[in-house]
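Entry for nicotinamide-adenine-dinucleotide complex. Fields follow.
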Amino acid sequence: MENLKVKDNTLAPKGRLQIEWASNHMPVLNQIKKRFDREKPLTNLTLGACLHVTKETGVLIETFLAAGAEIALCCSNPLSTQDDVAAALAEEGVHVFAWREQTPEEYYWCIDKVIDYKPLITLDDGADFISIVHSKRPEALAKIKGGTEETTTGVLRLRAMEKAGALKYAIIAVNDAHTKYLFDNRYGTGQSTIDGILRATNILLAGKNFVVCGYGWCGRGIAMRAQGMGANVIVTEIDPLRALEAAMNGFRVMPMAEAATIGDIFLTATGDTSIIRGEHMQEMKDGAILANSGHFNVEISVKDLEELATSKRTMRLNLDEYSLKDGRKLFLVAEGRLVNLAAAEGHPSEVMDMSFANQSLCVENLAKTEKMPPKVHPVPKEIDLKVAYLKLNAMKIGIDRLTKEQEKYLATWEEGTI
Ligand SMILES: NC(=O)c1ccc[n+]([C@@H]2O[C@H](COP(=O)([O-])OP(=O)(O)OC[C@H]3O[C@@H](n4cnc5c(N)ncnc54)[C@H](O)[C@@H]3O)[C@@H](O)[C@H]2O)c1
């Protein structure tokens, strides 16, 4: 059986340094790794992981290696693999099937290879892996005890599977832990999305009309950071509460048809499809830049852009220019794939520290508990709280504890106005 496929094995030393740099900023995961190394909770157990192969994922994989697991790893996006990290992990004995710039066929071939390892526990980011196991490789289901899901879109897909009665094994929705989405989706995506747009374009954000489509956890973070760089932020939404919240946070809120005419930069983060379509592109200013931070490359209709264009050029790394019939040019960053991972390095290590601490503790939990019913389960509250306490400790931040009097006061209804 083919036991790995990466772009270039000689990149391993560079990848090792990258993982070491990330590890320096991931104190919570390191603490868990030390315990795993002592206790070996995953001995003789195979993990099948479909994650963005970044330096932070490298630290997570090393945590599982320390726990005694055998690991097969593929990437969760055709453009997000850091080839040096993939090479370093391959050198450490991980069965890595990942490289940057895959065709859709290659992407699914890698998933298939990981399934060949017959994992007991799966880790997914976007639910492509779980979806393929269920639809194309159902024979692998018998062995699988449970899995985890990293992102909002994956959790949505899995809930849809559960509702349709199609989900055959238990999933822990890591995305929905407070110590994940409040930090990773907001501050992680907020910072790294701006990073990706700047690396691809190096434009000045100050004074630009920056349109954020979707004011969810990612959108909130992106809007906040774009505003911090001096951009005039405009939000589009379909949810009245989120639209109100954006308005009261000081952003202009309007329908996409209106925003299309004034935006300089457009950023989608909805987890939904066809947010920016041909009808919007027809109205955009010359030179408008389009990027996406949602999980799949369906938020900006690249098909519409291709149809409207008379020619296309690659201007620079991760930036394509589309010339339209009327002479206007529109620019698409990283093919409309998640810009922070395709054009930058993904989230900073400090937030992935918490997301991946949740991943590692949830995998340990799945390994040591009875097989759970085939549903989407929340991250156990004690894991979420533990990660928060460990992170505070690592940041040398102390907090107060309730006094006995306060505990009693908060639990009674008799005391009121005095
Ligand atoms: N780039 C990354 O590294 C990264 C990190 C975390 C999550 N994600 C992905 O980003 C996406 C958003 O995640 P989230 O956690 O912010 O989700 P969320 O559910 O908190 O927010 C999504 C928002 O988009 C809005 N929306 C839906 N359809 C819309 C439309 N047609 N027009 C305007 N707004 C619309 C929703 O009302 C909601 O407020 C998901 O695909 C998620 O998987 C990416």
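NOTE: The first helix runs from residue 12 to 23.
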